[in-house]
Amino acid sequence: xxxxxVYSLTLYLGTLASWSLAxxxxxxxxxxxxxxxxxxxxxxxxxxxxxxxxxSPLEAAPRTDVEAAAPxxxxxxPRVELTAPTAGxxxxxxxxxxxxxxxxxxxxxxQFQVNGVDFGPEATAAPYAxxxxxxxxxxxxxxxxxxxxxxxGKKKTSSYVTVTVDNAIMDTTPPxxxxxxxxxxxxxxxxxxxxxxxxxxxxxxxxQLQVDGMILGNEITRPPYMSAWNxxxxxxxxxxxxxxxRDSFGNITFSSPVSVLVSNSAAPAPASPPEASPVASxxxxSPVASxxxxxxxxxxxxAPPAPLPPSSLPAGPAGCASxxxxxxxxxxxxxxxxxxxxxxxxxxxxKMDGVIGTAAGAASDYxxxxxxxxxxxxxxxxxxxxxxYAAASPIPYEAGTSYxxxxxxxxxxxxxxxxxxxxxxxxxxxxxxxxxxSEMSRxxxxxGLGIFASTGRQSVCGLSIAPAGSSATFASPK
Length: 478
Fold this sequence. Notes:
Blueprint: E1 7-11, E2 40-44, H1 57-60, E3 64-68, E4 79-84, E5 90-91, E6 94-102, E7 107-114, E8 117-118, E9 129-133, E10 140-150, E11 155-157, E12 161-165, E13 176-181, E14 187-188, E15 191-199, E16 204-211, E17 214-220, E18 225-230, E19 237-247, E20 252-254, E21 258-262, E22 320-323, E23 328-335, E24 338-347, E25 353-359, E26 369-375, E27 381-385, E28 388-390, E29 403-410, E30 415-422, E31 428-435, E32 446-455, E33 458-467
Parallel strand pairs: 5-12, 14-21
Antiparallel strand pairs: 1-2, 2-3, 4-6, 6-9, 7-8, 7-10, 10-11, 10-12, 13-15, 15-18, 16-17, 16-19, 19-20, 19-21, 22-33, 23-32, 24-29, 24-33, 25-26, 25-32, 26-27, 27-28, 29-30, 30-31
């Protein structure tokens, strides 16, 4: 009696391109290609054959076939690893998220996540990556992950990677600023209050008032944005006022200019010039390498003489200005060409720090001086050359001794030469063709002398001014 049995065999074919079945020494071919992502069932039906060795087994076999089964889950879960960015990275702007995946049944897609929430569309083809615009989120730590999905629908989430987002907050909106006083076309005299109104979408860092393109006082860092303008230091006629506002991101705005008319009478001006608030500027270092010998400290001079009138100082102690921690100013006729300036200065102590310099207005800060001579804190005399102090050679000074200074100034070239002598001694060169201080490298005119001692006391007397090349002489006070 013929017996008929059906056997079910499961074959994992891997990457074989085709296969065949052999029975009784024959090798009939089974058509069709094999897919590595499919699992196949091979069904073999054996039958009893007639006792005829010459018969073909295929002729006797009723059927031999292969059935392809539907895809089923792989033997193991897919694997995924976030390869970029690395753990602990600090990100800004745009960043690339990338993952490495592996699966036996085939990868269907990779979904990236930021803080556990799906980010962007699923990546369905290698390389599995996505671009993250970090500026759309907040600064600080964030957790990143990737979820892989295989063709069988199985999912696996990568380990979390923590990164830090640090995008600098950028602001490109400039502040707004306008002049509040004086009004356009106003006639002003004496000491005039100049004020501005400023605002910004973040905050106003500072407001700087200007007269004819030159700064008026120091930057004002909080309201009210106001400064005193002593019009006695300016020629009668039209002058232009402007306010500049800046925010902490470097955005700046100039106000619309306001033109006013200065009209001061020829009558004697007030007894004393304005004094700016004390400036706590540290001593400015001198480039002279070696300090001179130490001189005995002389006693401080007596109380300063009568205050400066707002005109050229007459020779002699009656026309002196003294500074000890406060700014003093001595105006002279506005100069726009070449001229020679002379004066006597007396340091009150050895190794003090005092400057005397030409200015374009009432000076209240070092940066408002152009050509500068100095009694420096190493006990020598030097002068400003652009961005630093220098001297042709060390020139020591003594406390209580008067020194006569001569400055040959060239305003159009923004340069000067400085000389000094003690009593009837020979004149010594401090510096030749030195540049104006950097902040004043474009000033069109000079109208006064600024005097300030941050350490100790100094007095300046006998201011004299003459055209360049003039034969006029100057007698120092005895």
